[in-house]
Amino acid sequence: MAGMATTGGRESTRSWTFLTNHAHVLLAIARNPTARLREVADEVGVTERAAQAIVADLEAGGYLHRTRVGRRNEYTLNPAGRFRHPAEADRQVGDLLALFTEDPATGPTP
Fold first, then answer.
1. What's the mean per-residue pLDDT of the chain?
2. Residue 63 lies inside a defined structural domain of this protein
3. Where are the alpha helices (DSSP H) in the chain?
4. Nearest CA to 97 among 26, 32, 35?
5. CA angle 32, 34, 38 (to 5 degrees)
6. Residue 88 falls within a domain, yes or no?
7. For the chain, how long is the longest CA-to-CA vector?
8. Is residue 13 part of a domain?
């Protein structure tokens, strides 16, 4: 069963993912740098308010920069930003972005 963890023959009802909501928001923005927060929230499966808080965290951490263009925001990502956990601190988030935004037919998204 997809999404269900099994342990010793019994199924777990807890749901979890390998990537955090912060990673999912960053990836959603990488795929569509002019997306509205409502669209990002829908894609990630969080509230618009949660998406807004995550974007604020990512901006404060230097992972993205928000520019106002008319009535919308446009986001520029910083692929040189480092992962925050000590186990991955030697890696750049650009590695993650490349992994999840690459189109096999055309290569990495610019």
1. 88
2. yes
3. 21-31, 37-44, 48-60, 93-101
4. 26
5. 85
6. yes
7. 56
8. no
Per-residue pLDDT at 20 exceeds 90: yes
Rounded distance between C-alpha atoms, residue 77 and residue 79, angstroms: 6
Q: Go through 8-40 and write b for each residue having 16 or more CB atoms within 10 A of its CB, e for each that does not.
A: eeeeeeeeeeeeebbbbbbbbbbeeeebebeeb
Whether 77 maps to a domain, the answer reads yes
Check whether 77 has a pLDDT greater than 60: yes
Summarised one tens digit per residue, pLDDT across range 87-104 is 999 999 999 999 998 765
Token pair 């909501």: residue: 21
What range does the domain containing 30 cover?
Answer: 18-101
Q: What is the CATH number of the domain that holds 64?
A: 1.10.10.10
Q: Look up residue 83 and give its two tokens.
A: 């992962």
The pTM score is 0.80
Instruction: Count how many domains the chain has.
Output: 1
Tokens describing residue 5: 């963890």
